[in-house]
Automatic annotation (TrEMBL), chain A:
This is ABC transporter ATP-binding protein. The lineage of its organism: Bacteria, Pseudomonadati, Pseudomonadota, Gammaproteobacteria, Oceanospirillales. GO terms for molecular function: ATP binding; ATP hydrolysis activity. The keyword Nucleotide-binding applies. Belongs to the ABC transporter superfamily. The keyword ATP-binding applies. Residues 4-236 form the ABC transporter domain. PANTHER family: TAURINE IMPORT ATP-BINDING PROTEIN TAUB, TAURINE IMPORT ATP-BINDING PROTEIN-RELATED. Pfam families: ABC_tran (PF00005). SMART domains: AAA (SM00382).
From TrEMBL, chain B:
It is found in: Cell membrane. It comes from Motiliproteus coralliicola. It is a multi-pass membrane protein. This is ABC transporter permease subunit. Its main location: membrane. The chain crosses the membrane at residues 37-56, 95-119, 131-151, 157-176, 216-241, 247-267. GO terms for biological process: alkanesulfonate transmembrane transport; cellular response to sulfur starvation. One of its GO terms (cellular component) is plasma membrane. Residues 91-271 form the ABC transmembrane type-1 domain. Belongs to the binding-protein-dependent transport system permease family. PANTHER family: ALKANE SULFONATE ABC TRANSPORTER-RELATED, MEMBRANE SUBUNIT, TAURINE TRANSPORT SYSTEM PERMEASE PROTEIN TAUC. InterPro entries: MetI-like, MetI-like_sf.
Amino acid sequence: MSELLVNDVSMIFDTPDGGQVEALRNVSFNLKQGELLSVLGPSGCGKSTLLNIVAGFLAPTDGTVSNGSTELHGPGADRGMVFQQGALFEWLTVAENIGFGLTMKGRPKEEIAGVVDHLLQTVGLQDFGDKPIYELSGGMQQRVALARCLANDPDIILMDEPLGALDALTREKMQSLVLKLWKETGKTIILITHSVEEALFLGERLFVMAPRPGRIQKEYQLPFADEGLTKDPREIKASQEFIAKREEVLSMIWEMEEEIMGGAEAVGA
Amino acid sequence: MKMIESLFVKLGLVSTGLEKRKTVTFGDASSVEAGRFWSCLSVLTLALAWYLGSALELVNPIFWPSPMAVWDQFVSISSEGYRNFSLWEHIWASLYRILVGFGLGCLVGIPLGFAMGLSKLMRGWFDPIVEFFRPIPPLAFIPLVIIWSGIGERSKIMLLFFAALWIMVIAARAGVGSVKLNKIHAAYSLGASKRQILQHVILPNSLPEIFTGMRVAMGVCWGTVVAAELVAAESGVGYMIMVASKFLSTDIVVLGVIIVGAIGYGIDILMRKLEAKLIPWKGKA
């Protein structure tokens, strides 16, 4: 059992015009094994910076990130990434993409083939193993990205707006797939999204972040992800409870946006 | 009827499918097809003009020979050779120089371009050198390489190496620069080492740029080798042209020019075929 510990993380950097950006201020949270956390906030709230710090692509100016008792420095195979798009390898087939991590680890061919076949089934691409990536639709490519990440069996999966580039219908289907994979694998997941609905539906926990400085404004515990495993997603999203939460979060974000815009207008005037 | 129709489609005289229903065609690049009919017509027109021009004796054969004279020269040179070498040996001499010079240029240029794309120090160190030599036409070095190594093979290969080197350095550097950071991050998170990322991500990702560079370099090398042979050589297509011009054998000069054009065209077709085969994902990412 591993636990992700983000302890008092701050991120400040200089801008070319001599100013400073406080992208994150004193962000702390723990994530137990198997928790699904979604992170929401207006642009500039530091949610991508936070994800990049957890992934190990950025080093925070202050604070630490640990996986269990191991303090993390730099990227590692214990934290898998799923990007919005363009992170698959076009020169490899679907199966080769999924098996990439295991191939790099030098695992035997039969073992890789077994894992890949199983994952192709899991994400519903059993007939597409030999296809090149560029022949797949956007939704299918994201299925490959999920499978590639799972093949490596990471402790934590970090998703940076994984469904952001998909059309609305595909997006809904993929949300259900994410829930299914979460349940089946018991992975810890952090999911960054722009969509309030997606954040509410997928997040067992939800952070709403605020900008300047980037910080966690409010945390929610939500029942919808668990319900989504058994109930029809459309039904959940149409429920009174869901709509009430959605309005609450939306107005919170609207207020932040207005603050930003208001500030910009003041500067302009 | 069906056969005639499909022939017309192939020639680009009739459009099919949605193309037929488009009302806006001017400015829609996707509706501009290969136009094979017009290609055939333009080649035939040129050939006819050449034939008529010489049949009606409109041009002095010293300035421009008849197609028959060029053909006769082709037949006689390809059986008897020219200046101690057969026609194929002349062609091979030119091709061989290109292959070696171009090959060496790739061998040095691609790793150097990679190093420049991956390291600040290497980029800073080599940038002024590359940027200075790149715009110099390789032919400007002919006097130097002749002083260094005479008019033999070595000087030609050196020249072609120079011609290909800078193009390949820049192509490889651009290839490294085109890697999306997402891909690199994904590979690190999948547990790949630096070496593995270089071999399995950066290298394949830069193949399209490298291949484009190779096509450009091949073209430049072909032009450079012919020009170099015109200046000083003992064999090669350019040498053939140069010697023939001294004897006012315009038919051989034109034959040489046609061979140069045909081979250059052939090389490019070959490279494009190879590109489609090796990099099927190009432009589809």
